[in-house]
Amino acid sequence: MEESMEEEEGGSYEAMMDDQNHNNWEAAVDRFRRPPPPPLPPIPASTREPPGGQLLPVPTLSVDRKGPKEGLSMGPPPESNGVIMMLKSCDGTATVAKAAPASTPSSTININTSTSKFLMNVITIEDYKSTYWPKLDGAIDQLLTQSPGDYIPISYEQIYSCVYKCVCQQHSEQMYSDLIKKITNHLERVSKELQASPPELYVERFHVALGQYMGALQSIVPLFIYMNKFYIETKLNRDLKDDLIKLFTEHVAEKHIYSLMPLLLEAQSTPFQVTPATMANIVKGLYTLRPEWVQMAPTLFSKFIPNILPPAVESELSEYAAQDQKLQRELMQNGFMRGDQSRKRAGDELAYSNSSACASSRGYR
């Protein structure tokens, strides 16, 4: 009984599997009997890409499901939707690429226009000599001849712009040469005026010339800072301020140092013949121009510049005291008794205050 039931169950299971396989096989046969998909529409020649620009149609891959019968595909037949999308995207890309405008004569004209504008801004050597340097020349004249505190109606922005443009147009060498020549001519005129000065005005005029020139450098050097940075420091390995100070040393100070120093020593022996401020400015200026000039009058320079003389020693204290006493006697001979008078006035005031205090105390009693 049980064996017959097992045989019936086994037979029914095999029959069911046969039916399922038969149905799957018939479905696969029906799919192969379907008509093929319509062919792809031809691509118009106008939108066809040149050789090498097309993507070759590659059929999309499909996974074949193997049924019980080998070689029969259980999945849908390969479709060309992927190929169609690829071709459509390529056509769109080609259309966009062809829609982009090519280089037209107008763009070429714009390039030429910008080039012509650039060429119009070129500064020739004739432009430099006729337009740019005259502006710089006039400004330098005003700066060299100004007095301390004077207002100069010049545009520093305009002068700096002229220097910048000339440096960019490769006129640095010519501009530096013109600047040195300009200042040299000015200093030679100053030197001649000092030579014609009388002795009583010589020291004061030298002081004015030195202060005026050093003040002018504070404006001239910043105006030519672009030339200094990109030409003097780079190619000449120098500094503009040092070069201009050297010009004053060579054309003015060296020519007058041997006439100026005796007058300074004489003024030192006569108190207040030259004001202390004037004496200090001249001595410090000479030390800036050439420190070696200290050897000509070390005592004079030591009064205004520290660490000129060697340090004091105990054995020379008596000599220092004698020098101070001599200076005091000279001051007294010239009528300067302010120290004694101030002490006398202070004593009188003290005596008056004491007497007033005593009187008030007696009256209180």
TrEMBL record:
<feature type="region of interest" description="Disordered">
    <location>
        <begin position="30"/>
        <end position="79"/>
    </location>
</feature>
<feature type="domain" description="Cullin N-terminal">
    <location>
        <begin position="133"/>
        <end position="266"/>
    </location>
</feature>
<dbReference type="InterPro" id="IPR001373">
    <property type="entry name" value="Cullin_N"/>
</dbReference>
<comment type="similarity">
    <text>Belongs to the cullin family.</text>
</comment>
<feature type="compositionally biased region" description="Pro residues">
    <location>
        <begin position="35"/>
        <end position="44"/>
    </location>
</feature>
<dbReference type="Pfam" id="PF00888">
    <property type="entry name" value="Cullin"/>
</dbReference>
<protein>
    <submittedName>
        <fullName>CDK2-associated and cullin domain-containing protein 1</fullName>
    </submittedName>
</protein>
<dbReference type="InterPro" id="IPR016159">
    <property type="entry name" value="Cullin_repeat-like_dom_sf"/>
</dbReference>
<feature type="region of interest" description="Disordered">
    <location>
        <begin position="343"/>
        <end position="365"/>
    </location>
</feature>
<dbReference type="InterPro" id="IPR042652">
    <property type="entry name" value="CACUL1"/>
</dbReference>
